[in-house]
Amino acid sequence: MSNIGNKRFSEEIVSMVGRRVSVQTGDGKQYSGDLIGIDEKLNLILGSVVGTGEGTIRVVLNGSFVKEIDLLEKPFDLKALNERLSRAFPGMTKIREDIGAIMVMDSIKVTEKGVVEGGDRLSATRVKQIFDEFSRETARKPL
To answer: How many CA atoms, within 13 angstroms, populate the side-chain half-sphere of residue 78?
Structure first.
């Protein structure tokens, strides 16, 4: 059970990379920025930082001082998009969480940014339409 928990924890942390976060340290300091990198000891790098000295571009925080990391934006729901795509392409979609993508017909790769590669023109166009509709609907929902 511990290995499963550790794996899930690691997946969740990695899914926050590239997202806007707020970090509180043990001494009460607060940083907000884009999570650029993080390691197993919770050492992290923030970019586009708010709340620090003027001109600060990046902040590196020692994990032993990190008290809390809050995600400030709604994560992209690959599972819900996969369900939507599987209605149009039954039995032809597969979530690849390891690469943060859905494969449609083993040739069309869809990420949170849209259709990034593959497929014939007609199929890729249909996948893009479904993706765009899904994005419009989920963008309205608050965190």
So the answer is: 19
